[in-house]
């Protein structure tokens, strides 16, 4: 399984963009990059995923480098409710990994007024 | 979006009791469901993976006779913690995925906080 490295914590001012980096230099060719977040005492929430191309949805944008060794999750206008632990996770499309997710420690994002 | 419901949200019971936790996919068929455990200030740890109609696959170090998993239908998986003890107290979270293959994300329940006295 690919290993990931994320900053332990980050701060962001409300209304500003939050850019959360993730290093996944050992990601394999068939692994997607998934981002989830966990708000205190709740189950993780799916945010976005991608393989090679940049992706955008109603929650966030995902920028993946051309060599796929790193990615950045962008919350364009952070709100206080975006305070959470953000996890970057490679996930295989099937086979022996059958979609297993291995959670690291993630990044604690604190959005302040 | 896809909704996964987990029940109960909180359980407090005596040592030696068996506790059953249900995980339901409400608006999609879950071919694969996952069970995680999370201790305070730690990340989620995968306990087991279950595919509908087949036996669960447990991660190394997780006792299959202690944590019984049943995935009898495409919308329901259950985790039974048998003869629970205080060290089993934790936050248990399930997730569901619509297919075994492909790039569909996992959708998580809101977790069950289990406290064994």
Which sequence of SSEs, written as H and E, runs from N to C of chain B? EEEEEEEEEEE
Number of strands of chain B: 11
How much helix, percentage-wise, in residues of chain B? under 10%
Largest interface, Cβ cutoff 8 Å: A-B, 25 and 29 residues
The number of helical elements of chain B comes to 0
Task: Write up this protein.
The complex is a heterodimer of chains A (about 110) and B (about 120). With about 110 residues, chain A is mostly beta strands. Chain A is about 0% helix and about 45% strand. Chain A has no helices and 9 strands. Chain A has strands at about 10-15, 20-25, 30-40, 45-50, 55, 60-65, 70-75, 85-90, 105-110. In chain A, the strands form 2 sheets. Chain A has a 5-stranded mixed sheet with strand order 1-9-8-3-4, with no helix packed on it. Chain A has a 4-stranded antiparallel sheet with strand order 2-7-6-5, with no helix packed on it. In chain A, about 35% of the residues are buried. The model of chain A has no long low-confidence stretch (mean pLDDT about 90). By secondary structure, chain B is mainly β. Chain B has no helices and 11 strands. Chain B starts with a strand and ends with a strand. The relative contact order of chain B is 0.33. Classes of the chains: A mainly beta (about 110), B mainly beta (about 120).
Based on the model shown, name its key terms:
heterodimer, A: 113 residues, mainly beta, 5-stranded mixed sheet, 4-stranded antiparallel sheet, 9 strands, 46% strand, B: 117 residues, 7-stranded mixed sheet, 11 strands, 50% strand, globular
